[in-house]
Amino acid sequence: MTDSSTSAVLDRTGLDALVKTLGAQGRTVVGPTVRDGAVVLAELASADQLPFGWGTQVEAGRYRLVPRADGAAFAHTTGSQSWKAFLHPEREKLWSADRTPDGYLSVTEEQAVSPSYAFLGVRPCDLRAIAIQDRVLTGGRYQDSGYQERRAGAFLIVAECTEPGATCFCVSMGSGPGADAGFDLALTELVDETGHRFLVRVGSAAGDELLSRVPHHAADPGTKTAARDAVNAARDRMGRAMPPVNLRTLMGESLDAERWDDVAARCLTCGNCTMVCPTCFCTTTEEVTDLTGDHAERWQRWDSCFDLDFSHLHGGPVRSSPRSRYRQWLTHKLSTWHEQFDSTGCVGCGRCITWCPVGIDITEEATALHDELAARLRQHQGREPER
Question: How remote is the C-alpha of 287 from its chain's centroid?
């Protein structure tokens, strides 16, 4: 977290005014709310729909919603959804084709009108994930026009983390718990003897303009200090951490590690980790037709490198074993992503740990690979030189 030249304090009334002002501007406000025993992302009409008084308990393969006595709104960990579901949706129609009466084919490109989104409660790790997907989907030669349109109009309100979960490891990935850039407004929630309030930092001209339209008061030094201390305390309470080594090098030197067999024996290759990951971007296309054969549509949908068909070439899949598919996912996420996009593909949100049905822990696997590599190096160094 860094001090901003423009900061203010909102109370719950001001937060509700923020939501309603965004709605009055024609934006679709999306934020966390409680539904079906979990914190989910959904459209909000008012701040009252935020999960005030609810927190979460998470572990590998485990997620529970729990009540909180302090009434905090942003004291929960990330759920199974990320903002990817709105910017890079699970299914998207690309075009449709119709057979004309004279026997020709008429193809119509889909021109869906995307909402003007305002995302409320974006965690710093997810803010980093959005920046990564920006590079992947709009920064190269082939750009995703649908993503580009949705992203260009999105207004981002960050909620800095003060309550990290047991599966969080954003500090070791350099993506949290505070936010420094890339947002329009950043909130730090405080509940103490002074009251329930939100320190707001401005990150853009649009954010400054919005703040001027809602009731607020100037940020006092005590609130700024308390907010900074709360985020710093969260930094020291991460539930997980990656090994403090160069992960890119580690993955490249561990391609033949025995640990891959160990994790393959547990992995169901269900693809949950890729579906909940805020940076995984792979898609495939499928065609559907009506019963007459006169109308067809092409849809883009999420795909996973854990799917056998993902690497299918003539003769069968390239990666047919669970070992090869898990290794592909982890080495791409932590290593070869750099070659493609100049960054890691992991932001330390912990979703892949929480939502793995068998509780496979990416930080545990990286640590085990490091330990195995270190043991091999020690063994090699201890050998007598050949004569």
Answer: 29
* pLDDT (tens place) for every residue of the chain, 387 residues total: 434 457 999 999 999 999 999 999 999 999 999 999 999 999 999 999 999 999 999 999 999 999 999 999 999 999 999 999 999 999 999 999 999 988 899 999 988 788 999 999 999 999 999 999 999 999 888 889 899 999 998 999 999 999 999 999 999 999 989 999 999 999 999 999 999 999 999 999 999 999 999 999 999 999 999 999 999 999 999 999 999 999 999 999 999 999 999 999 999 999 999 999 999 999 999 999 999 989 999 999 999 999 988 888 887 888 889 999 999 999 999 999 999 999 999 999 999 999 999 999 999 999 999 999 999 988 878 665 444
Q: The whole model's pTM is what?
A: 0.92
Helix ranges (DSSP H) in 71-169: 84-87, 124-138, 145-152
Contact of 227 with 1, CB cutoff 8 Å: yes
DSSP type of residue 384: P
User: Rounded to whole angstroms, how far apart are CA atoms 358 and 153?
Assistant: 38
Domain residue ranges in the chain: 7-92+114-235, 247-284+304-381
AA letter at 161: C
CA pair distance 362, 353, nearest whole angstrom: 7
DSSP annotation of 357 reads: T
